[in-house]
Structures are given as C-alpha cells and as structure tokens.
Amino acid sequence: MSKSVSVLKQLGSARLMPTTPAPSLSAFAALCSQKATREQYPLALSIEKNVPVYKLPPMASCSPEQRAALQDEWYRVLLDGPGVLVAKQLFPNHRLLDRSSSTLMDIIRSEREASTSRQGGDHFAGAGKNDRVWNSFSKQCLADPASFVEYYANPWLGLIASSWLGSGYRITAQVNNVKPGGEAQVCHRDYHLGFMSEERCARIPQAMHVASQFLTLQGAVAHLDTPLESGPTRLLPYSQAFAPGYLAYRLPEFNDFFLDNYVALPLEKGDGLFFNPALFHAAGTNQSPKDRLANLLQISSPFGKPMESIDTRPLLVSCWDEMLHLARERGFGDEVDAILAAVGQGYPFPTNLDRNPPRNEEMAPQSEQGLLRELLREGKDKKSVLEAFDEFHRNTQA
C-alpha cells in the first residue's frame, strides 16, 4: 500500500474487514513514516514532532475568509494529514481555568465522599491512580453556571469542532486528573469502535470502520502545565488513515510499533489538543510530582450517537440567566453562537413532523438551538423559557 493512499480507497469489496492475513504492519509503518511540513500547513505556527501547532488570534480579528482557511487546513490535518493538532492558548483566560478547575475538583471530592465503594479508577487507569468526572460538562453547569457559560462560549471550540463535524455537533466532556505514578494506557483508538470488543468490532461492516472516525472529534484542554514527565498524550501521527486500524491496534506487534514510534508534546495551561478518534494514542505515565489535570472533550456529529447523554433542561435551569447576561453584555456574536451550540441540540431529528413540521425557509423542523436563540433574542426570563422548552419537547414526541 502506498503511504499516500486514501483511507477510503483502502476498502475492498468484502463486507467485513479481512482478518486473515492480519493487517500489514509494513503498510502501517509506511503510512506513519510521512513527515508534515510547513508548506503543507502554512497557517501553522510550527510543526513539532510531526504535529501542526497553531497560535490562535482573537476570534474577532479573523475575517470569514481567514476562518474558512483555518478550517480547511484543520480538516486536511485530521483527514489524511498527521491527524492531530495543537491550539496554543485555546483558553488564554487562566482565571477562568482556575475557577473551572476548582469547581471540578470540588465535584471530584463530593463524588468520592458520596460513594465509599468508589476506588477512583476507571478503564483508563488503575484504582487510586486517577480521578474521573463523567459528564463534567453538565456537572460544571449545575455547580457553577457562570464559569460554565464563559468556558463553553469560547468560539474557537466551535470553529475547530465544525471544521471536522459541521454544524449541529454535541459537546460532551469528562475531566481526568492523573495523580503522580498514574501509569500509561495501552495504545488504542476511541469511540465508537474503540469501545467494542475485538469480536464485535470484526462483525461491523468495513465501511463503518472508516465512517466512524467522521462522527466524533477528540479534544483535551490542559488545565495545568503538562510537561513531558507528567505523561501528556502519546500520539502516532498519520495512524488514523489506516483502514483496518480498529482491529490492528489490538495486535501486539502494532502496540510494539506504537511504543517505538509515538510522539508526545508538552502542553501549557490553556492549550488545546484535538485529534481524529481513529488516531493511535494513549495517555502517558505521570512521572512528575504533580497531578495532570485535563478536560477531555468528545464532540459528536449530529449524525451519530454521543457517548454520554446530555439533558438540556437542567442546564437551562442553571445557566439561562448567565446566557442572557452574556447576550446583553456582548451581543449576538461568536460567543453566543458557541454557548448555544454547547447547551442545545442543533439537529432537529428525530421529531414528530405532525406537531413540529419543517419550516419553509429551512426545510427542517425547529431544533433546541433554534428555539433557544429565538428566546434569547426576545430576552425571555427563565420561567418563560422553561415553559416554551417543555412545550417544544411535548410537540416532538411520538
């Protein structure tokens, strides 16, 4: 296989991904031997260890043409380029990060105290070696709506997410705090097929092995400085473009290749890391004396199922007043667009087309985001918003 062959062109005519012979390690090695250059990614600040690194200017200073050019380049990076990029100072407001981190650590402590059976581990690390907050997205909103709204009103999140997923994406998040001594993961690919057994994965038609990677985008925001000794994510650039990778990463010889060839980049507080979910990757060992704290983002296409369920209504109960304040203070610009995209569903299906019919101007029914945008523009109070939201959902039910 030529190392430049598109992942789509690697698919044969068979329904299932062939398992005999085993995926070709030599073809995989050739694919991963590619080198990214500044000529290929001219908008990057630099190329570090085969990973394009971007310095983000204030969003307001970017013209529509500049934004589109960045999205075009990010799409190429994620599709058949290195598969991973770094956004320097995605969150330049470190006061916000500190407040968010404090809220999330409070949640960790309260969850630990509430469950004496909880050992503090999960499938990412052994018991006692890390703290995880599942659905930190919703929990932060309920615990501290002001920091939540400011955090997810970051317009760069939306621009990066939509470069890969288009509009209507859904954000979920999980906080991971890896303690000193926390061990490295085994290399893997992520959700969807990465969360299946080998046997089940082998029964998935091979076209879906490729299609799956277009339904999610993985991200991580460093809430603390993350030097190499703290174990930042190990990455294997270009590995996302290997079609049989969801079967291959489970094989010992591919894991050995990963261990011999991965790269890792130190991250500064506020940096963002984004990668194709099919990229071979693994968290590293924390050999530092400090915790490694990151907010892990899994952003889903409206055409797929997110890994976690998000209930919009309690988010509105908690943060509508903050959203209204944001709109009044800063206008209906990029930040309002970003928080609406984070809080509400942007895809209107499934619905009841008798009671929520297509709108002539859009050829689609009303969505949560569309409704919330209208209510925000009208300056509705929380009580009115919840009444309208409940009526909307009654109309979408079968």
UniProtKB/TrEMBL annotation:
GO biological process: fatty acid alpha-oxidation
Segments for region (Disordered): 350-369
One Pfam family matching this protein: PhyH
UniProt GO MF annotations: phytanoyl-CoA dioxygenase activity
UniProt source species: Hirsutella minnesotensis 3608
Lineage: superkingdom: Eukaryota
Family annotation (InterPro entries): PhyH (IPR047128), Phytyl_CoA_dOase-like (IPR008775)
Name of the protein in its database record: Phytanoyl-CoA dioxygenase
Xref: SUPFAM superfamilies: Clavaminate synthase-like
